[in-house]
C-alpha cells in the first residue's frame, strides 16, 4: 500500500479522482464501509483539532478500527524513533498510520503501514492542500488559471509547503507574500510564481488582483527555534501591519474567496468583523476536510482502484499513481462531468 507524505505524492489525475470520491461520499447519508476489517492508527505528536478529528471520524465512518495514540504516552516519549514506532504498528497488523510530527520529513521504514502525513514540522501538510484545492474547485468550478495569494508566515508554514507543491501542477498561479523575516528561501519552492516582502508592496494591490487569498496563521510557537526571530512581527502589531483588516478586505472583489487552514486567531491575522463575510470559506474547509480525508484513507487502504485504462507514469509517488489508473486529467475532464467513467469509484463496484 502507498504512502502519502507529500503533496508531490498526488498527481493531478489522482487529485481529481479523490475529489470525485470525496463528493460521492459527501452525497451519501450512510457511507459504505470501504475500510471494514482494516485498522487505522492516529499518531499525533503535536496539537490538532480539525485534522485529528476529521481523520478519526473519516476512519470510523468507513468502518475501520481506529487506534488513537497520544505520543506522550507511547515509547516515543522514551526516545523511540518514529521509524521504530511505525515498524511496531506494522508488526501488530495496523494497515494505515496517520502521523503528525514535529519532524520536517516523515521517513517510513521498509516494514511499515501505509503512512498518511497529517502534518510534518515546517515541512508539509498534504491533505490540507488537497481539501483547500477542492474548496477552490467548488467555489470557482475550475483551478486552471486561478490566482491565489498566500499571505502570512511562509517560512514556518507546512501548509504553504504543500500548497506550493500541489496547486501549481493544477494550474493555479501562486503569489506568496509575507513580512520579510518570514519569506523563507525562494529556491525551496520553485513552483511559486512570485514571492514578495510585504514591506515592499501594497497589500491592497495584491488583494485586488487575487481570485482567492489563503491567510496563514503566524507560527509563533516555532519562531523561538528560528534564527533571526528578533526581526519578526509581534501578535500585537501583526493585524495592522500585515493582516486582513476590514479596510483591506474591501480591496478584494465580491467574487473573491478567503481561505484559512485554521485555527484562525481572530484579531491577529484576520479582523473579527470579517467572521461572517460571505467570501470566507473557513467553515466549508472544515467540512470538506472530512470527505477529502475519507477519500485519502480509501486510497491508503488500497481501495481506490481498479480503474480502466493504462497506469499513469512519471509523476509523483509511483505507488500512489498505480491507484489512479487512467484517470481524467484536470484539463481533459472536470470532476463534475458525469459522463466520464475512466475512474471507477469504489462506491460503484
From TrEMBL:
<dbReference type="Pfam" id="PF02729">
    <property type="entry name" value="OTCace_N"/>
</dbReference>
<dbReference type="InterPro" id="IPR006132">
    <property type="entry name" value="Asp/Orn_carbamoyltranf_P-bd"/>
</dbReference>
<dbReference type="GO" id="GO:0044205">
    <property type="term" value="P:'de novo' UMP biosynthetic process"/>
</dbReference>
<feature type="domain" description="Aspartate/ornithine carbamoyltransferase Asp/Orn-binding">
    <location>
        <begin position="145"/>
        <end position="299"/>
    </location>
</feature>
<dbReference type="GO" id="GO:0016743">
    <property type="term" value="F:carboxyl- or carbamoyltransferase activity"/>
</dbReference>
<dbReference type="GO" id="GO:0005829">
    <property type="term" value="C:cytosol"/>
</dbReference>
<protein>
    <submittedName>
        <fullName>Aspartate carbamoyltransferase</fullName>
    </submittedName>
</protein>
<feature type="domain" description="Aspartate/ornithine carbamoyltransferase carbamoyl-P binding">
    <location>
        <begin position="3"/>
        <end position="138"/>
    </location>
</feature>
<keyword id="KW-0808">Transferase</keyword>
<dbReference type="InterPro" id="IPR006131">
    <property type="entry name" value="Asp_carbamoyltransf_Asp/Orn-bd"/>
</dbReference>
<feature type="region of interest" description="Disordered">
    <location>
        <begin position="325"/>
        <end position="349"/>
    </location>
</feature>
<dbReference type="GO" id="GO:0006520">
    <property type="term" value="P:amino acid metabolic process"/>
</dbReference>
<dbReference type="InterPro" id="IPR006130">
    <property type="entry name" value="Asp/Orn_carbamoylTrfase"/>
</dbReference>
<dbReference type="Pfam" id="PF00185">
    <property type="entry name" value="OTCace"/>
</dbReference>
<comment type="similarity">
    <text>Belongs to the aspartate/ornithine carbamoyltransferase superfamily.</text>
</comment>
<dbReference type="GO" id="GO:0016597">
    <property type="term" value="F:amino acid binding"/>
</dbReference>
<dbReference type="InterPro" id="IPR036901">
    <property type="entry name" value="Asp/Orn_carbamoylTrfase_sf"/>
</dbReference>
